[in-house]
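STRUCTURE:
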């Protein structure tokens, strides 16, 4: 070997060694894609081409007759979606919706969801995506915050709308169902003869969107020239650390960055097909899942909802190349019996968030998925973590931040927090937050600098106090501002970042954020409840945390220990049985299924509070539903939708993984 060749070989070997140690190539990819996305952002901003709808319109010009969407066997080209959304947009205009108006959408996954969303964007109005599982006070609150002119809903959720009709009407909403009358009659009254069905009168408090008869004439790009990157493209509700859902503002700028960045990180091409079974009222399914197709030109294969039995069948049937996930979805797939379809698909990448380390390797190996793109972000967040995982070293991390990324994006900090009070711990001398060391769990803070579009904090719509509560001033320097994510993470010495838990009053269950304050407020309205503390507990073999509520009841039901000097609590058994029955009915009626506490603990002493009268829950969380530590009565939520006594037999069912929660 010549000296030159030897030198080249040595340089290459040194390069591989350095890259293996510091993983510059992973950093370069993130920086390259980030830079390209920012340049596109700046170009669109300079040319007054900011609207997210314009990205969809670009694809309609480039590939009008390519398939944009597949849903339950039916295919829709880009032109099909454009013409249908033109009709719906003209219907909205004809019904008084103008630019900057808000329209609430309470709909299930379907082509009509996407068409309606596009129609609203097309006329420069703003959609508010309402969770289709909510009802009662939570639904009223969400609509009140949106302050929209109209609510468009699928007929399937009509009982939830009717359940709080007066409150919704008092807010000034006009109500329309997006479901055609013929479909309603077919779905609900299919058991009746055709002549009888035609005589049925639907409720009169809502109208029917008869958009199919409207004009297909489109709306020129000039209709949206006034739209700025900072303007909202959608209101997407997210459960925060306190209170009812908050409406995060997804502005056109963040959507522009997200749709381009995710498409490039996942290397999605126009010929690819992306399978989405997540709900579209979440930013993951809607903005990242469907939205990336507006920039990549790929085909979206949309499922009405996630189904273990249909997941791989759909992927095989439609030649899917990418699938979107949340961690719970992956666990369901891994826990399903092995079958011949496990590796017959063409999926080469799964992208999403919440893939837990204990199933990551099994998921990737069993289903033959070459790459996992795990990310961490929030609807209202000011930054994101990325981990494009191709080997075992990458598995389990929500992000990787090598030396280049840390240099260019320094605004990610893990800081110490009091796990009981949830207050940030500050240095007594300087008053600044204290950064965590290697492998030390802390809350993630992200820079909220409104001078740059990548770290701009928009906050929550119509909720300035909630928005301000997310910010920390003077965290590390006199004039800096950071956003509290409410999430606990830790990082290793080689700069892999791992999710540890959710801090504060929110936990994840069934892929949803559950606000303990919201659940506690709902239960607290039930007669008989004196005090209520809600928290999440770990359950073996289950993703996230199951809801548990510790209740102190009124003395007519449970006279607590310590009252009148008594050593033990006095329980009125008949009154307690009646209360538990009412509690079951109350939770089923007023809470989304995922938010119903799986365990109830009837406390025989007053709940302990802090000096500011907040219920302490640290010890309650540690005890969980452990029958060794808890001598008080417990109940659990059964598949039949009611609470029954929880004892050793039920505990063994859970530990053996046989119980359905």
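SEQUENCE:
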């Amino acid at each position: 070997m010549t000296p030159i060749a030897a030198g080249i070989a040595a340089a290459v070997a040194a390069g591989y060694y350095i890259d293996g140690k510091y993983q510059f190539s992973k950093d370069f990819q993130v920086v390259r894609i980030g830079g390209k996305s920012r340049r596109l952002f700046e170009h669109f901003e300079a040319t007054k081409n900011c609207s997210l709808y314009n990205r969809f319109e670009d694809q309609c010009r480039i590939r009008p007759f390519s398939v944009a969407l597949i849903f339950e066997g039916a295919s829709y080209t880009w032109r099909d979606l454009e013409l249908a959304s033109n009709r719906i947009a003209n219907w909205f205009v004809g019904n008084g919706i103008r630019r900057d108006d808000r329209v609430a959408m309470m709909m299930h996954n379907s082509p009509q969801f996407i068409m309606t969303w596009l129609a609203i964007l097309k006329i420069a109005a703003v959609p508010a995506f309402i969770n289709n599982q909510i009802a009662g006070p939570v639904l009223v609150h969400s609509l009140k915050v949106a302050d929209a002119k109209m609510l468009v809903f699928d007929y399937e959720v009509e009982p939830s709308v009717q359940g709080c009709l007066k409150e919704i009407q008092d807010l000034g909403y006009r109500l329309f169902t997006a479901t055609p009358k013929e479909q309603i009659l077919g779905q609900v009254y299919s058991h009746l003869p055709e002549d009888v069905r035609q005589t049925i009168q639907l409720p009169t408090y809502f109208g029917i969107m008869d958009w199919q008869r409207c004009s297909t004439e489109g709306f020129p790009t000039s209709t949206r020239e006034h739209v700025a990157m900072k303007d909202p493209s959608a209101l997407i509700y997210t459960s925060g650390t306190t209170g009812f859902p908050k409406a995060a503002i997804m502005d056109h700028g963040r959507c522009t960055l997200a749709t381009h960045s995710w498409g490039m990180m996942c290397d999605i091409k126009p010929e690819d097909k992306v399978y989405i079974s997540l709900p579209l009222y979440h930013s993951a399914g809607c903005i990242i899942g469907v939205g990336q197709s507006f920039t990549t030109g790929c085909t979206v294969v949309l499922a009405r909802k996630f189904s273990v039995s249909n997941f791989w069948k759909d992927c095989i049937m439609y030649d899917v190349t990418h699938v979107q996930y949340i961690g719970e979805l992956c666990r369901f797939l891994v826990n399903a019996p092995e079958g011949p379809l496990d590796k017959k698909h063409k999926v080469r990448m799964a992208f999403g968030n919440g893939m837990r380390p204990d199933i990551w390797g099994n998921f990737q190996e069993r289903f033959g998925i070459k790459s996992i793109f795990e990310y961490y972000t929030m609807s209202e967040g000011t930054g994101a973590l990325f981990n494009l995982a191709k080997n075992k070293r990458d598995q389990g991390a929500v992000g990787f931040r090598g030396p280049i990324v840390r240099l260019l994006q320094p605004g990610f900090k893990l800081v110490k927090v009091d796990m009981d009070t949830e207050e940030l711990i500050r240095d007594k001398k300087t008053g600044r937050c204290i950064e965590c060391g290697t492998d030390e769990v802390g809350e993630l803070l992200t820079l909220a600098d409104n001078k740059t579009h990548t770290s701009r904090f928009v906050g929550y719509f119509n909720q300035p106090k909630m928005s301000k509560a997310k910010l920390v001033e003077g965290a590390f320097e006199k004039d800096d501002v950071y956003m509290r994510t409410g999430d606990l993470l830790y990082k290793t010495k080689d700069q892999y970042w791992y999710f540890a838990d959710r801090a504060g009053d929110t936990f994840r269950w069934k892929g949803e954020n559950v606000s303990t304050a919201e659940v506690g407020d709902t239960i607290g309205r039930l007669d008989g409840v004196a005090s209520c503390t809600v928290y999440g507990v770990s359950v073996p073999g289950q993703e996230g945390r199951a809801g548990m509520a510790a209740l102190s009841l009124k003395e007519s039901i449970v006279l607590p220990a310590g009252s009148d000097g008594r050593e033990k609590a006095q329980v009125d058994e008949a009154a307690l049985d009646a209360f538990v029955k009412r509690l079951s009915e109350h939770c089923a009626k007023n809470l989304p299924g995922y938010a119903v506490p799986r365990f109830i603990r009837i406390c025989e002493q007053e709940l302990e509070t802090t000096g500011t009268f907040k219920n302490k829950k640290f010890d309650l969380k540690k005890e969980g539903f452990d029958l060794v530590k808890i001598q008080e009565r417990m109940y659990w939520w059964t598949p039949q939708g009611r609470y029954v006594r929880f004892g050793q037999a039920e505990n063994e069912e859970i530990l053996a993984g046989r119980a359905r929660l």
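REMARK: The radius of gyration is 26 Å.
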